[in-house]
Structures are given as C-alpha cells and as structure tokens.
Amino acid sequence: MLWQPLDRLPGVGGARAEQLARLGLRRLVDLLFYFPRDYEELTEVQAASDLVDRQPATIIGYFTDMQLRPLRRGRSVLAALLETTEGLAVRCVWFNQPYRLANLPRNVPVVVTGVVRRVDAHWEMSHPVVRPWSEGEPVASGIMPIYSLTEGLPQWYMRRLMQRVVRRYAGWLEDVLPEEFRRTRKLVDIVQAVQAMHFPEDWRQWHEARRRLAFQELFLLQLAMAWRRKRSEREARAPVLVETPQIRERILRLFPFELTAGQHRAIAEIVADMARPVPMNRLLQGDVGSGKTVVAIYAMLLAVAHRHQAALLAPTEILARQHARKLAETLAHGRVRMALLTGALSARERQETLAAIERGDIDIVVGTHALIHAVEHQGLRFRQLGLVVIDEQHRFGVEQRARMRQAGVDPHYLVMTATPIPRTIAMTLFGDLDLSELRELPPGRQPVYTYCAGEAQRPRWWDFFRKKLRQGRQGYVIVPMVDDQENEQIGVRQAFEALANDTLEEFRLDLLHGRMSGEEKDHVMRKFASGETQVLVCTSVVEVGIDVPNATVMTIEGAERFGLAQLHQLRGRISRGRHPGFLCLFAQNPSPEAAERLEIFRSTTNGFELAEWDLKLRGPGELLGTRQHGIPPLRVADLVRDRELLEEARRDAQLAVDVDPELNHPAWQSLKRVLLHRYGKVLDLADVG
Ligand code: ADP
Ligand code: MG
Questions:
Q1: Ligand 2 center–CA 541 separation, angstroms
Q2: Secondary element (H or E) of residue 464
Q3: Are strands 551-556 and 509-512 parallel, antiparallel or unpaired?
Q4: Separation of alpha carbons 302 and 637, rounded Å
Q5: Cβ atoms within 10 A of the Cβ of 497, count?
Q6: Is the CB of 239 within 6 Å of ligand 1?
Q7: Is-above-0.70 flag for pTM?
Q8: What is the pLDDT of residues 253-264, one digit of tens each?
Q9: To which H or E segment does residue 5 belong?
C-alpha cells in the first residue's frame, strides 16, 4: 500500500510526479517521511482590541504607504503600513528584503500574520507572513508546515497533497518500536508522530512527535553499531597481545620523559583492549603535542613484542615521512625493523618493501594510502598484522577498516586525531569506537598567543615577526587555499615573491604547496626542520602534524576562509616547543559568521572546546560528513539538541543486544528489517540473521 508510486494518486499528474521525484519522493511512504523544514504559525483573525504585546496575531487589512529605505553597507528596511477597517494601523517591517516592495499586494485585502510588538504608541510586526485574501474566504489558522520545494512546485500544492496523504495513509504505517518499549519511554506511536510532524495541533504535540522520531533514528543507528560490535566480539579473531612487566619496562625505557597521567590512562585502555581476542577499535583524541604519537608507539611496540607487525597510516606523504623519522629516532638502538611505504617509491623499491612485509622482515610499516592500495589491489598479505594505527584521519570509516582485515585475522585499530570531535558526533559516526582522550599537555609547554589584526596593524605585526626570527625562531606564513590547484600555486608563489623581496627580504624563505612532489616537499621540510630555512610560505598542506619545535610565529592570511578545525590544526604547528607561540590572523571583510568564528578561535586554544563550538556553529551535518561515511543522514535528530536522547538511545541499544544478541524476539522483527535495510550494507550486517 505505502509503496504505491505517487503518480497513482489522484491529482498527481506526470509533471507533478516528476517534480516530486526531484525531491526524492516516489512512493507514498516517501511523502509521509518528508517532514517540513519549518512551520509558520497562523493565528485566528484578531480584532484590534485583542492584540497582545509579543504574541502572534493575524490581521486582515490593506497596505498603505510602503517605503523602502536604504541603510548603510547595502542594507535596507522596507516598511509598509497595514490599515484595517476598524482603523487599526500596524507597521510591518522587513530588513534587507528590498525585492518585497514589488511583491506586496496593493489595493487588495491581505491576511498578515506575525508577532506584534508595542512600539511607543503603535503596533509593529517584523517579517510577517503576507497572503492575499478575498472577501468571504475562510482564513487558515494553526501551525502550517513549510516544505522544501523544487522549481515549479508551489507550497500550497505540497500542503494540500500532504494533508490528503497524511490523513488517508499515515494509519497504514507499522510501528517498528514495540508498544511496551514505547510505553516505558513515553514515546508516541508512529502514526501520531508522523501526523503531528506534518500538521501539529500545538507545539507540545509537535515536540512529542519529533522526540519519538529522533529517538527512533538514533536508536536504529546505535542498535546497528551495537549489533555489529556484538558480532565482532563473538568472532574474536584478533591476536591476543598481553603486556608483561618486562615488555612495559622495555618500552618505557625508550622515552626520555615521564608519561603524563593522560598518556598512562590511554595506554592502560589500549593495553586492556589488545589483551582481548576482540579487535580493538579505539579513537585517541588529543590536541597537537598532547603526546598521541607516543601512545601509538607504545601500542605498536606491544604488538612487535609479540612478533606481530604494526602499520601506521598517515594522510599525507610528508606526515608519513615525519613519522618514519621520529620512529627511527625513538627506536635507534633497538632491533625493530621499519619500512616506509608511500606513493613516492619506485616500482622496484615498492616490490622489495612489499616482499619484506610478506616475509615478516618488517615489524613496523609506516605508509600512506598507498599501503591500503597495496592490500586491496596488489594482494599484499602481512605476515602477521597485529595493529593498525591511523593518524589524523576521520576518513578511515568503517568500510576502510574492514579492508585491512587480513586472511582471517582482524588487527587491532587505533585511530588518532588532533582535531577532537564532540562526543555526540563520535558516538554517532564512530558508534562502535571506544574513546580515549588526552586532555592535558605534557609539562613545560608554552602557550600560543593569538591575535586578530586589521590592515592597520600589519606593519607592527611584521616588525614583531622579524624580531622573533632575529632571535633565532622560525615562522610560517599561511596563504589560503583556492579552489583549483593551478591558481593556488600562483597565489602562494606571488605571496612568496612579495615576502622574499620586501617584508622578509633579510631572511631565508622557502615555499611549500600541494602541487609539489613528495620528494620536493620532503626536501623543503627537511631544510625547514634543520633550521636552514627560517620561514616557510605555504598553503594549508602544513595543516596536519608537521613538527618543528623551533617554529613559533605564524601569519595566516585570508583567515576568514578557514574553518575552526583547520585553524586549530594550523595553530598546532607553533605549539610544539619550549618557546611561546605567536599567531596573527588577517581577515578580509569577514562575514559576521566568520568574525564570530575568529573571535572564538582567539579566545581558546583548547581543541575539545573548539570542537563543541564547531558543532554549534556549523551544525552536525557538515561535521558528520555522512555521505562520505555511507551512513544515511539523520533527518530528524539533531546532535546539538538531542544529546541526552542520544545517550538514552545508546544505552537502550546496548541493553537490547545484551539481552537478545540476534534481535530474534518477535517484537523486534519489523525494527530488525528496517535496520538491515538502512544500515545492513554500510555496516556490513547483512549476513547476520
Ligand atoms: P601528538 O602526536 O599528540 O601531536 P607527540 O606524541 O608527537 O604529540 O608529542 C609531541 C612532543 O612532545 C614530542 O616531541 C614528544 O616527544 C613530546 N612528548 C610526548 N609526551 C611527552 C611527555 N609525557 N613528556 C614530555 N614530552 C613529551
Ligand atoms: Mg602527531
């Protein structure tokens, strides 16, 4: 019934059906779950004497005296006086919508709805909804849905269609949540919920509906994750790598410092995971310099101590090389055999490295995506892979992790990120990942001072920049990314020339951008790391992970173009050493949003705090990047607002699979069907049940 194509409905002709299809609406059920993007509240027509300050009202009248007044900076205010037959006058205003002037109906009665405010001696409405009206026509009241539309499809048509469909067909919906389950959690049933999402009688009803649907979405996702986790626990195919006191002591000896309390905690969590035959799936979050790499090295050496191999995956060539260098330093006096596998190897080098990995002559391999490629397409089989560490990478989603599975053995996984993601996001996106956090920095770290400056302060900033360089420090100048790489190269080159010939002419400068080969980049980085170069002019390729402790000053041009996470990554480059860091942001005509973002960025250096801000400012959609992860987007739930609901859903999901690991109870059957349909493929659940 609900799977009927829409063009079978009376009133939905070929053209309409096509428009609806453009919105992804092909069957009745699609319509039922196509929820309004917003609502407008239409109240009943009011008499002048009934108006209440700051309450919504609907008034019938005529517009007289419309005026468009320009304000500064291209802004404008449109004011129209609404006069009723009773002699009431209400001033209606719209800001920055000059085009409305032409659209306001003249000389016909209109129905105007909005919140009225008492301003001095008269009434005012800002941004009211205006509809033409003809004498005797009933005025709709109540909460009306506003749907996202497509070209040619009017709102009134959509509303009428929805009204019909919801009234006639919502009753056919089958509730996937068992009644008992709903009752204990005070969730309304699906029919009520769908009806009230489209045509709520009041806001309380709408809230109940939204809560129910949001819960269902979150619960389904959490259930899918919990189920998958349960299954992988049953399979238990990971190597058991137990820490012994000797192993611990041998590893700790390699570090010339005491570990922080946070590092000890994270290591304890990892050690506990790796001692079980269930693959570890752990996300390690911590700001730049918080010591994540040290924790990862610990975990890798634990694997190596058991004669297993470890792989460390980095997102870029530069980072892979840097990791390889650091590892080589740390392990200089041991017997651990290391290899680097990136796209820059010659065919012969690659063959040799791959062969050595297969023979088990390599203990730790550091690589880029080229390593995954080798596993997937070149049949690379590790001799005995025990642990995969993934650095600075959210992009290694569930699917990619499955690819590293080797001949019946699942390695342990440790994912690291210096751009912390809020807990709600982590739970949704990486619902089957455990979370470790390094919230403190090792002792002795210096602060980074951040400034937002205007053009007028440029000379003073560069004076300061030069002073720091003369004191022996090094610096970065970041030029924003542009859309195509060709121009980016030109942009960064021009910036480089300008600095080298003028502002910073007395210093040794170098250039780094995305179009250079791995070898060239590495060469540039090496010169910078050794201090031979004093200033690196670059695009945001330096974004992640590059580690030069003596670099302490940074200029970011076009800062308005960077997101919080990116800025945070960049700032991380100058928070590595014994000297305080100084960062100056220059922004050109930032929008109010960009200005707010920069101000927040200036006010804190804590990555966990910035992550929460990022979630608030950008909304979860972008952060989740769900498309990329193949997880269907959440349509009702909102990870900022529904934090508690998410925790609740997660607990319930865990409980459900604990009690009934295969969800075989009859009450779960329709839920299970929906779950497999939605997440089966992405989460690799299809063969269960
Ligand atoms: P991250 O990977 O989180 O950016 P790293 O592990 O690279 O951090 O550590 C940053 C720097 O701090 C490195 O030079 C590292 O040797 C040093 N370091 C790490 N842990 C400690 C510690 N507990 N005490 C002192 N220095 C540390
Ligand atoms: Mg690191």
A1: 15
A2: helix 458-470
A3: unpaired
A4: 41
A5: 13
A6: no
A7: no
A8: 999 999 999 999
A9: none
